[in-house]
Write a structure and sequence with these properties.
- The chain has 313 residues and is an alpha/beta fold.
- Helix content is 37%, strand content 18%.
- It has a single domain (3-309), classed as Ribonucleoside hydrolase-like (Inosine-uridine Nucleoside N-ribohydrolase, Chain A, Alpha-Beta Complex).
- The strands form 3 sheets. An 8-stranded mixed sheet has the order 3-2-1-4-5-6-12-9, with helices on both faces.
- The protein binds beta-D-ribofuranose and calcium ion (CA).
């Protein structure tokens, strides 16, 4: 039976590709809903971008809820310098027409978890953890009903991508991350240490286009746009592809390797705000709270992604 998931996301081109990958995998993943959050761009844009992607995949039936418009304590931080002013620059997708459900995304998460059997729903997070933390604060009873949270989040040996030490999702809302990391929920973390290995080289992008379907062509156009900034920044053969790694883990965990460790996040201000503190060598007595991934079979990941995009319109 397909695993029930809720995707919490801030599209973002790489979020968009992750959503497509999940929708291309109905035998394994049953997408119960999408919840948007402020992150790569403001909430109104992440929500419109989610609508565009659902319509591109001809899946306007998937419930879409807008979540939080700002982090728990801080001012929003966005990344138009990477994703473009819309957050989904690259392809020219039609203005979306599908509805956004009236219910707030945080309440949707709470209701969905309460309505399901305990341990039935996995939360998949591709952006800052604001909505998940707010749901936990609002309704602590949901914590033990969550099967697992699989998140694109954080970094260890790769350092940061928005400050020298902090990964973007972690930096935007460290207070939310602190609530989630200390909740006791089973967590799998896909950090920059993994995603920085998954480079969208020109030949991989061409393979997406060569599928010949609208989703494959749009994927190449989206990633070609967001690559521009990263290729200049890193000087690599392609840009790292972040959020689809989370979906790949759900589909084929054997492509990844890691270990159970303690992970905390630096709250407060100053140059280490949002930094992940990863006890990789277990030098503290703190209990492991995260399966922290560091290894990935890169060709296997791109093969899987290309296959799943090929199942879409
Ligand atoms: C993460 O930040 C965002 O820019 C991407 O969508 C991804 O979720 C990578 O640090
Ligand atoms: Ca994201």
């Amino acid at each position: 039976m397909a695993r029930k998931i809720i995707i919490d996301t801030d599209p973002g081109q790489d979020d968009a590709v992750a959503i497509l990958m999940a929708l291309g995998s109905p035998e394994e993943l049953d997408v119960q809903g999408l919840v948007t959050v402020a992150g790569n761009v403001p909430l109104s844009r992440t929500t419109d971008n989610a609508r565009k992607i659902l319509e591109l995949a001809q899946r306007a039936d998937v419930p879409l809820h807008a979540g939080c418009a700002r982090p728990m304590r801080r001012k929003p931080v966005t990344a138009e310098h990477v994703h473009g002013p819309t957050g989904l620059d690259g392809p020219s997708l039609p203005a979306p027409t599908m509805e956004v459900r009236e219910q707030h995304g945080v309440l949707f998460i709470v209701d969905a978890l309460r309505a399901a059997k305990p341990g039935e729903i996995t939360l998949v997070t591709l952006g800052p953890l604001t909505n998940i933390a707010m749901a936990m604060v609002l309704a602590p009873d949901i914590v033990e009903r969550i099967a697992e949270i699989v998140m694109m989040f954080g970094a260890y040996s790769e350092g940061g991508n928005i400050t020298p030490v902090a990964e973007f999702n972690s930096y935007v809302d460290p207070e939310a991350a602190d609530v989630v990391l200390s909740s006791g929920v089973k967590i799998t973390m896909v950090p920059l240490d993994v995603t920085h290995q998954c480079l969208s080289t020109r030949s991989r992008l061409t393979a997406f286009r060569d599928i010949g379907n609208a989703c494959g062509i749009a994927t190449r156009e989206m990633l070609t746009f967001s690559e521009g900034f990263d290729i200049k920044k890193y000087g690599w053969d392609g840009a790292p592809l972040h959020d689809p790694c989370v979906i790949a883990y759900l589909l084929a965990s054997k492509l990844f390797g890691g270990k159970q460790v303690n992970v905390g996040v630096q709250t407060g201000d100053g140059p280490t705000a949002g930094m992940c503190i990863v006890d990789w060598w277990r030098v503290t007595e703190k209990p492991a709270n995260v399966l922290f991934l560091r290894e990935v079979d890169v060709p296997g990941f791109y093969k899987l992604l290309t296959e799943r995009l090929a199942r879409l319109p």
